[in-house]
Design a protein that fits this description.
The protein is built from 13 helices and 12 strands. With about 400 residues, it is α+β, with helices and mostly antiparallel strands. The protein has 2 domains: about 190 residues, no CATH class; about 170 residues, no CATH class. Strands 3-4-9-6-8-7 form a 6-stranded mixed barrel. Strands 2-10 form a two-stranded antiparallel ribbon.
Length: about 400
């Protein structure tokens, strides 16, 4: 493998046959380039799908109420359905084993003021478990906890962009913010993969806001994450049963679609999974097709190269070269050209994807990139194919008698 003389012969052969080397290298480089671009674009489409669902946990279920549209049990249509604290206890009693977490929620618009800075944000009153629903990450300090909830503390956790709006480059931790005329202490900041809007929310203990604004037991909505052990179909069945039970509790017609609304992300998850599966299959077959085309190309070239070098091989054999050394030389040259060309194709493909990156977002292709391991694996496949394609004619050529090879036209 590290025979200097043999490598010298290989480089001399490449130097003396530039066109042949360029053509064979181009075939391999183009196959790897196309393979890289296809997989990169496919990954970009995947990234787009993932971003669309990044704002909330894929296990999320949201329950909201509205007005009845169908008369039921002597009650008229148009009746407002109000969720309350006892619905929280009802859901826990009925479905505790199906839920990973549950949080009531009240949401209202408030003006936030800190010294000379002010802006309007959405204030969400929640339980500590709501952080899981949003897939948010605490950046500094902490999120709400059960002590805040039990003590009805006037504390808040604010989004990263709320901190930036009101405090600039300063930290908001420990500072007091006035929300709608009431002072709250900032105990933490968070980031959210959902984007700018989700990073402009302010979270406060549910019990605090419920008491300060009306001192009622009314709930605006419920956020639930279902047990991850449930399959998608089981999660969908769970939300159907939950909707049925809540309708029974609030005397709502089973056919009424407006009074209780349940959004189950499992349904979207199922659709995205199907789309991703189809996309993966398409990319797989296109990639395989590209590799097969590359394999056929390199196989044909290797057959041609060996045939073209029949006289040269005959001379080598006449000078004492063994069949084994002749085969090894041809295969090493084939592997070297394939590996080098494959790397060039990978480099060009990765560079193109990097340069096109942001410009492809309007076509729903986000951050197109490719795993180097996948492309290296494809290159190895081409090397193996080239080796096999070169071995058979090389072995045949190595068996030819020198006098026959020298007569070959």
């Amino acid at each position: 493998m590290f025979d200097i003389d043999r490598w010298g012969e290989i480089f001399e052969s490449i130097k003396n046959n530039k066109l042949r080397t360029v053509l064979s290298g181009f075939t391999i480089a183009f196959a790897i380039l196309l393979f890289t671009l296809l997989f990169g674009i496919g990954n970009g489409l995947k990234n787009t799908f993932e971003k669309e669902f990044a704002g909330d946990s894929m296990l999320s279920i949201y329950i909201r109420s509205g007005q009845t549209t169908i008369p039921y049990k002597g009650l008229q249509s148009g009746r407002k359905v109000q969720l309350k604290n006892d619905d929280y206890r009802f859901l826990l009693d009925e479905f505790d084993d199906k839920m990973q977490s549950i949080s009531p929620r009240i949401q209202k618009s408030v003006k936030a003021v800190y010294k000379g800075e002010q802006n309007v944000y959405q204030l969400r009153a929640v339980y500590p478990s709501y952080l899981t629903l949003e897939s948010a990450k605490v950046e500094s300090g902490r999120f709400l906890n059960m002590f805040d909830l039990k003590g009805r503390s006037k504390v808040i956790a604010i989004g990263r962009l709320v901190e930036k709006d009101l405090f600039g480059q300063l930290s908001a931790l420990g500072k007091e913010i006035n929300l709608g005329g009431i002072s709250y202490k900032v105990i933490g900041t968070f980031s959210d993969p959902g984007g700018d809007n989700d990073e402009r929310y302010i979270y406060a203990p549910f019990t605090t806001i419920q008491r300060l604004y009306g001192n009622t037991d009314e709930v605006g909505a419920f956020g639930i994450t279902y047990n991850p052990k449930l399959s998608v179909d089981e999660a969908l069945a769970f939300s159907d049963v939950m909707e049925k039970k809540l309708k029974e509790k609030h005397s709502i017609s089973p056919k009424d679609q407006s009074a209780i609304r349940i959004d189950n992300y499992a349904e979207g998850n199922k659709q995205v999974s199907m789309m991703m599966l189809v996309l993966n299959i398409i990319i797989f077959f296109i990639g395989i097709g590209t590799l097969i085309a590359g394999i056929i190309g390199i196989s044909n070239i290797m057959v041609y190269i060996v045939k073209e070098r029949t006289k040269e091989l005959g001379i080598r054999k006449a000078l004492g070269a063994t069949p084994k050394s002749i085969i090894a030389m041809i295969l090493m040259e084939s592997i070297f050209i394939t590996a080098l060309s494959g790397y060039v194709g990978l480099l060009i493909g990765s560079t193109i994807l990097k340069l096109l990156g942001d410009s492809l977002e309007k076509y729903f292709i986000l951050n197109p990139s490719v795993n180097s391991g996948v492309v290296i694996g494809a290159t190895i496949m081409l090397i193996i194919a080239g080796t096999i394609a070169g071995y058979l004619p090389a072995k045949k050529a190595a068996k030819i008698k020198p006098i026959v090879a020298l007569r070959d036209d």
